[in-house]
Write a structure and sequence with these properties.
This protein is 62% helix and 0% strand. By secondary structure, it is mostly helical. It comes from Pseudorhodoferax soli.
Length: 98
């Protein structure tokens, strides 16, 4: 990752959510024994906490993009009651919850 420039392109809200999720996973990785957690613990020891967080957020973003752009993959919709509640609580200006 040396020499890469961190860009601020893309949605700020999505970037924040990816980083927050990655922070949570890195903090609790030592308590779990799955493959990703083991990778995170090793990565954190090798490159440091912040770079491990960004690396996991990047990995999650790439996985998410692959799932969303792959043909034939459908995402199960939320139940209507939860959808209404989630839309009313959403602070993002576009209110993009379907």
């Amino acid at each position: 990752m040396a020499g890469r420039i961190l860009t601020k392109r893309g949605d700020d809200y999505l970037r924040t959510l990816l980083i927050q999720g990655a922070k949570s996973a890195v903090m609790s990785a030592a308590k779990r024994s799955d493959r990703i957690s083991q990778w995170l613990v090793q990565l954190k020891e090798r490159v440091g906490w912040q770079k491990a967080v960004v690396a996991l957020a990047n990995k999650n973003a790439r996985i998410l993009w692959a799932v969303l752009t792959r043909e034939g993959v459908t995402i199960q919709t939320m139940c209507p009651r939860y959808r209404r509640r989630a839309r009313s609580r959403c602070r993002h200006p576009c209110k993009s919850i379907p």
